[in-house]
Design goal:
461 residues, alpha/beta, TIM Barrel, 13-stranded mixed sheet, two-stranded parallel ribbon, 17 strands, binds S-adenosylmethionine, binds iron/sulfur cluster
C-alpha cells in the first residue's frame, strides 16, 4: 500500500469504533478454515524452550436482562444448574489430561481462568481443576494464576478457596462503578463488596485487576476518572480499559444510537489513560495499566510474545496459538463453539477443533508487528532485524509516515510507539498494517472485499 491508500483507509475508519484485541487477531477468524487435523498434529510445532500459557474457559454466567449483559462478545452460556457445571468441569479436566498426555508434563508459566464467569465455580470445582492442572503440568511459585469473575460472586468462601489453591491474581469485571449507569446491562454490584474483595486480594498477596468499559451509555470523562480513582484508592493493582465493541445483534448494538459517538468514546478513553498515568500507573498496552511496583502481567506479556510462547486454550470455544518457526510455521485454532458438541467430543476422546488458520512466515511477521505495537514487549527495530533480517523503519516506511503525520506515532529510539489518538485507534492501525497480507488472502481464496465470512462468536485464549 502506498501512503495515499493508507491515508484513505484511515480516513474511512475514523468514525467507526476501532475495537480491541478481544475481536481482532491476525488474521480475523473470518479467514480461518474448517480443520480435520488431530490434536497431536496441531501441537507438533510446540517448542520445549518456549514459555507455556494455558487458558481455561468457564462459559457459565449469571443470567441478565438484557441477555449477555447487553454487550458481551464471548462464548458464554446462561447458568442453569450446578450438575451441568460439574459435568462441564468433568470434560474440562478430561481435555486438560489429553493435552498433557501429548505435551508431556511441561512447566507452565501462566494459567488464566477466563469466561464466561469462572467465579461461578464453587470451592470443590475450583479445587478439582487446580489439582488437574498441577498434576498434568509443573506449576511453580512463579506461575501466574489468574481467576476472572463477576464481582458479586467473589464471596468470602470463594476467595478463601482461591487463596488456598494458590491463585495469585484475580480480575474483576467492573465495567462501570456508576450505580446509575450499570443497570443498562442488567448487572448488579455492591460497592462495599468490591472494596472488600480488593482488600482480601491485597491481604493475601494476590494481584487484583479491574476491567472498565469506555463508551457506555451516559458515561463521561468525569465519570470514568471517578471510577479510576476509586478503584486505585481501593487497591487495584491493574486496570484494563476496554473500548466498548458493538457487534452482532446485542441489546447495546440495537441501541447504538444512544451510545456516545466515537469522538466522545475517544475522549473518555483518553481521560482514563491520563488519570492512570497521573496516578503513577504504567501503560503496558493500549488497554492495560499496571501499578508502578508490579511487573507486567505475565498473561498479557505472553499473549503478545507469540514467537516465544506456546498458548493452549482448553474448554469450549477456547483459542490456541502455536506459532512454530518462520521455517515451519504453526497455526491458531478454536475449539468447537457449541458447548454440547465440544463436550461430546472431549468425552469420546476426539479432537474438538472447529476451525483453524495455518500461518505462513509472512503471517508470523505481521502478528509480531501487530502485537508489538499493542504493548509490552514493545516493537523494537533491533529485535525485528535479528528475527526477520529486515529494517523495521524502511520495511513499513509509508505506514510509519502516515501515522506520524497524524500525530499517532513517535519513534522512541528503536521502538515505534503509538501516542495521542493513535492509542485509541490501535486496532485500526493494526488492521491497516495487516491489510496487504489480508488482501493476498482474499485474492487467493476468491473472496471479495465485501463478501467476507460472518465473524463467529469471539474466541479467547
Ligand atoms: C469474561 S468478562 C469478565 C468476567 C465476568 N464475566 C464479568 O463480566 O464480570 C471479560 C471482560 O471483557 C470485557 N468485554 C466483554 N464484552 C465486551 C465488549 N463488547 N466490548 C468491550 N469489552 C467487553 C468486559 O470488560 C469484561 O469484564
Ligand atoms: S460480560 Fe461477563 S458476565 Fe456478562 S455475559 Fe459476558 S462473560 Fe458473562
Amino acid at each position: 500500500m502506498d501512503q495515499q491508500q493508507i491515508e484513505k483507509y484511515l480516513d474511512g475508519s475514523l468514525s467507526r469504533t476501532p475495537g480491541t484485541k478481544i475481536q481482532y487477531g491476525h488474521p480475523s477468524p473470518r479467514y480461518w478454515e474448517k480443520s480435520d487435523l488431530d490434536l497431536p498434529d496441531l501441537l507438533a510445532p510446540m517448542r520445549p524452550e518456549r514459555q507455556l500459557s494455558l487458558y481455561l474457559h468457564i462459559p457459565f454466567c449469571v443470567p441478565t436482562e438484557p441477555g449477555a449483559c447487553g454487550f458481551c462478545l464471548f462464548a458464554r452460556e446462561d447458568f442453569e444448574s450446578y450438575p451441568l457445571v460439574r459435568r462441564y468441569v468433568d470434560s474440562l479436566v478430561r481435555e486438560i489430561e489429553r493435552v498433557a498426555s501429548l505435551t508431556g508434563r511441561r512447566k507452565v508459566d501462566c494459567v488464566y481462568y477466563g469466561g464466561g464467569t469462572p467465579n461461578l465455580l464453587r470451592g470443590p470445582e475450583i479445587k478439582r481443576i487446580f489439582e488437574a492442572v498441577a498434576t498434568s503440568f509443573i506449576v511453580t511459585d512463579d506461575t501466574e494464576i489468574t481467576f476472572e469473575g463477576y464481582p458479586p460472586l467473589f464471596t468470602q468462601e470463594r476467595l478463601e478457596a482461591l487463596a488456598e489453591v494458590g491463585c495469585n491474581r484475580i480480575s474483576l469485571g467492573i465495567q462501570t462503578l456508576q450505580p446509575d449507569l450499570l443497570p443498562e446491562s442488567g448487572r448488579t454490584q455492591d460497592l462495599a463488596q468490591i472494596e472488600s474483595t480488593l482488600r482480601f486480594a491485597a491481604d493475601h498477596g494476590m494481584r487484583a485487576n479491574v476491567d472498565l468499559i469506555t463508551g457506555w451509555f451516559g458515561q463521561t470523562p468525569e465519570s470514568i476518572i471517578k471510577d479510576v480513582d476509586t478503584l486505585l484508592d481501593w487497591g487495584a493493582t491493574g486496570l484494563v480499559n476496554h473500548p466498548l465493541m458493538i457487534v452482532g445483534d446485542s441489546d447495546f448494538a440495537r441501541r447504538a444510537e444512544q451510545l456516545p459517538d466515537v469522538p466522545a468514546q475517544a475522549r473518555t478513553f483518553d481521560a482514563a489513560r491520563i488519570r492512570l498515568l497521573e496516578r503513577g500507573f504504567r501503560m503496558d498496552s493500549y488497554t492495560d495499566y499496571t501499578a508502578p511496583d508490579q511487573r507486567c502481567v505475565r498473561y498479557l506479556e505472553l499473549y503478545r510474545d507469540i514467537l516465544n510462547t506456546d498458548r493452549i486454550g482448553v474448554g469450549y470455544g477456547a483459542n490456541s496459538l502455536i506459532a512454530g518457526t518462520e521455517f515451519a510455521p504453526g497455526s491458531t485454532w478454536a475449539n468447537l463453539r457449541s458447548i454440547g458438541a465440544w463436550q461430546a467430543g472431549v468425552d469420546e476422546g476426539r479432537t474438538v477443533i472447529d476451525d483453524r488458520y495455518a500461518f505462513s512466515a509472512d503471517d508470523l511477521k505481521v502478528l509480531y508487528l501487530l502485537k508489538g505495537l499493542e504493548g509490552f514487549p514493545w516493537l523494537d527495530a533491533a529485535d525485528y532485524s535479528r528475527r526477520f533480517g529486515g529494517d523495521l523503519k524502511r520495511d513499513y516506511a509509508p505506514f510509519w509516515e502516515a501515522f506520524e503525520a497524524r500525530g499517532w506515532l513517535r519513534w522512541e529510539g528503536d521502538s515505534p510507539r503509538l501516542r495521542g489518538d493513535g492509542i485509541f485507534y490501535t486496532a485500526t492501525v493494526q488492521r491497516v498494517l495487516a491489510e496487504p497480507r489480508v488482501q493476498q488472502l482474499r485474492t487467493s481464496r476468491g473472496m471479495g472485499a465485501r463478501s467476507r465470512n460472518p465473524l463467529p462468536v469471539v474466541v479467547r485464549g
